[in-house]
Specification:
With about 160 residues, the chain is α+β, with helices and mostly antiparallel strands. The chain has helices at about 5-10, 15-25, 25-40, 75-85, 110-125, and strands at about 60-70, 90-95, 105-110, 130-135, 140-145, 145. Helix 2 (about 15-25) crosses helix 3.
């Protein structure tokens, strides 16, 4: 992978001037390279990874991983069905997989019930969907290569009588 991409992937806030020093380039060359990567669709957007465990409230969404077994459509393969699935606003990610299921779909909803309703009313009844298995995410420890640190607990030993 391009060295500039590797740096931006680790920290998208790294200034072009710093990248230039790291790669022995001029800041202008780095800025031009980044603009080209953005224009070519290699860099789609920049985003923040949020440890939602630390900002939990009543509006925090529930996430689920859904294994989907499908029958690919003749002359369309998996892509057409995947496109129909990832168009739903509840779907945050969709992957073609090898193994015992075909698609892995990541879904967010306001509650377990909204995710369940999505699966029961929209996903499972779709033509060519042969079966689904839903796994609710209970806690995240690491996301996109970043460890989601929890607040440190008191190091004082517990007192027992």
């Amino acid at each position: 992978m391009n060295e500039i991409l590797e740096i931006l992937e680790k920290d998208a806030r790294t200034p072009p001037e710093e990248i230039a020093k790291m790669l022995n380039m001029t800041p202008k060359a780095v800025k031009n390279a980044i603009k080209k990567l953005e224009k070519d669709g290699v860099v789609l957007k920049y985003k923040t990874i949020i440890n939602k465990e630390l900002v939990r409230d009543e509006t925090t969404d529930v996430r689920a991983l859904i294994e989907v077994r499908v029958t690919p459509q003749k002359n369309l393969g998996f892509d057409h069905l995947a496109e129909r699935i990832y168009q739903f606003p509840e779907v945050t990610s969709c992957y073609l997989m090898s193994g015992t299921y075909d698609l892995l779909v990541v879904v967010e909803g306001k509650s377990i019930h909204t995710v369940s309703n999505f699966v029961a009313e929209k996903l499972a009844p779709m033509e060519n969907v042969r079966g689904t298995v839903t796994h609710f995410i209970l806690k995240k420890y690491k996301e996109d290569g970043d460890i989601l640190k929890q607040p440190e607990k008191s190091k004082r030993p517990a007192i027992s009588l």
